[in-house]
Amino acid sequence: MPTPPADDLVQPFQIDPFGLRGRLVRLGPLLDEILTRHAYPEPVAAMLGEAIALAAALSGALKYDGVFTLQTKGDGPIRLLVADVTSDGAVRGYAQYDEAKLAKALAQGEVWGSVPRLLGAGYLAFTVDQGEHTDRYQGIVELQGASLADCAHHYFRQSEQVEAGLKVAVTRVADAGGARRWRGGSLMVQRLPPEGDAKRREASDEGWRRAVILMSSSTSAELVDPALSPEALLFRFFHEDGVRVYRRHQLAARCRCSRARVETVLRMLPADEVAAMKVDGKITVTCQFCSAAYGFEADEIDALVDR
């Protein structure tokens, strides 16, 4: 059988016998494509990469048919981060930032991965959208912590009462030709409610503490290393307690924008708003995620507005 790809995937696993479940996310070409598409400054690209890696790990914990979205909004240099993952593995993301604020933050010292320095005060939101005929779930928590992983921990502690450990890494790694490519990874371990008598619960507590310590000992280099397979990494950390892997879920950088979607939006807008969008009698709509541009001539605009 051919060797399965070791990049752009979510690898579910379970640690026996303590009822611990987890997901290892490994991102390679997918992440590099998304982050280089917009030529973001490195601190912005790295923070968006962390949001994407985190969204992939969190979405893997849910059973849904639709879109899982992670979004941050703050008053720092990075005003907005959006990363979403569909149930069939399509991933996309984008960032909005203030160049002047970013330059000022960079002049004051290291900002790489720092939520307080880059995002400022604001919120982190998780949304599950399964379509127009279902209820939309959203959880929101203040941006509190040094990293996005810390903010997610805060959310679990405050909103879900779920015990979960998270580790996220994003960096640039030289490929075989010497070009520096973005790579990312995340590791999430989640504890199920302990069952059984006091002795079993005590053993579960000890297993949970050990798993968190082992997960925390993982390095950024290990999480993003293309030469280290997901199975090998999980075995390295958790083999003493018996780690079991399940079928991988592949991910791909794929936007959901289309000309038809843009036409639908334009039809819904008031005629005066559509008119205000015209430049030299034409309208060009550019997707914030993938930068695809959709142009409309005057006659096409008239046909959309005259409804």
Our Rg estimate from Cα atoms comes to 21 Å
* SSE-based structural type: alpha+beta
Shape: globular
Classified by CATH, the class of the largest domain is Alpha Beta
CATH topology-level name of the largest domain: Hsp33 domain
Number of domains: 2
**Ranges with pLDDT <50 over ≥5 residues?**
none
Describe the protein's architecture and organization.
With 307 residues, the chain is of the alpha+beta class. The chain folds into two domains: 245 residues, Hsp33 domain; 47 residues, Alpha-Beta Complex (CBS domain Like). It is 36% helix and 30% strand. The strands form three sheets. Strands 1, 2, 8, 9, 10 and 11 form a six-stranded antiparallel β-sheet that branches. Strands 7-6-3-4-5-12 form a six-stranded mixed β-sheet. Strands 13-14 form a two-stranded antiparallel sheet. A hairpin with a 5-residue loop joins strand 8 and strand 9. The mean pLDDT is 89.
SSE blueprint:
Layout: E1 9-15, E2 20-27, H1 29-36, H2 42-59, E3 67-74, E4 78-86, E5 90-97, H3 99-107, H4 115-118, E6 122-129, E7 137-142, H5 148-160, E8 164-174, E9 180-191, H6 198-216, H7 220-224, H8 230-238, E10 243-245, E11 249-250, E12 252-253, H9 259-268, H10 271-276, E13 283-286, E14 293-296, H11 298-305
Parallel strand pairs: 5-12
Antiparallel strand pairs: 1-2, 1-10, 1-11, 2-9, 3-4, 3-6, 4-5, 6-7, 8-9, 13-14
